[in-house]
Design a protein that fits this description.
Layout lengths: L1 E5 L7 H9 L2 E4 L13 E6 L2 E6 L20 H16 L5 H12 L6 H15 L6 E3 L11 H11 L4 E5 L8 H5 L4 E7 L17 H7 L2 H10 L1 E4 L2
Parallel strand pairs: 1-2, 1-6, 2-5, 6-7
Antiparallel strand pairs: 3-4, 7-8
Length: about 240
């Protein structure tokens, strides 16, 4: 059983979906603390050839609440229309605009008000569009792991799911120790997305943008190839 565990992100980059596509079960952390200025409620799209942020407005609340206890701001009802107009202005001439904009419109207008619910619904919608059928498990539904932190929490979830291999994005390499996983009979490895250039109708390729950019400029069939080949697996 190969598993990966990640926080829910807003229209995350292709590496997130490469990770989902690679494993037997993908666990989404909804019971971890919300982090300001992270990818949880913002990402980047291409506007006039330059990366620009798009974000989800959040209701003001404690900075120490878990993602599942944060909510979209009341202004979201108005701001979602502005977000879609911004995406339309940025990508109206992209080759796959019509089908992708329809997908994003359905995502943005889903009625989930809880931040984690909204993000998970969005991620699942993109998975369906990309023919990814990996089972999704929500961490809070597996039990109460709040007393555990970082590596200990991951190991506990791995044992719960009888995992034999744990794959993480390369950005988390410093958080985990090979020895600790080996002691639990779990192989540890990291995925590094290559994000090879594709035609963005610009002079200079902008890498590691939101999956929105990938969807707008590439067919589903070519993205499927990216999901299966456009990465390296690194062993610690």
């Amino acid at each position: 059983m190969n598993i990966a565990i990640m926080q829910p992100y807003f229209v995350p980059y292709i590496g997130y979906f490469q990770l989902i596509n690679m494993v037997d079960t993908f666990v989404i952390y909804d019971d971890v603390e919300y982090v300001k200025q992270s990818w949880i409620n913002r990402n980047r799209i291409l506007v006039n050839g330059e990366p620009k942020y798009i974000s989800l407005p959040l209701k003001k609340d404690s900075d120490f609440l878990d993602v599942r206890n944060r909510y979209l701001a009341e202004s979201w009802g108005r701001e979602k229309k502005k977000l879609l107009l911004r995406i339309k202005g940025a990508y109206a001439k992209a080759p796959y605009f019509n089908s992708v904009f329809e997908l994003l419109s359905l995502e943005v207008f889903n009625e989930k008000n809880c931040l984690s619910d909204f993000l998970i619904t969005s991620i699942k919608s993109i998975m369906v569009y990309l023919y990814i059928d990996t089972p999704i498990v929500i961490s809070s539904e597996l039990g109460d792991y709040r007393a555990l932190k970082s590596q200990d929490k991951v190991l506990s979830i791995c044992r719960n799911l009888n995992a034999t291999k744990y794959i993480n994005s390369l950005g988390g390499k410093a958080l985990y120790q090979k020895k600790a996983f080996a002691e639990n009979n779990i192989d540890l490895m990291f995925l590094q997305s290559r994000c090879l250039p594709y035609n963005q109708n610009t002079k200079e390729f902008q890498s590691f943008l939101s999956i929105v950019d990938v969807l707008m400029f590439n067919s589903r069939e070519s993205i499927k190839t990216m999901l299966e080949t456009d990465f390296d697996l690194i062993y610690p």
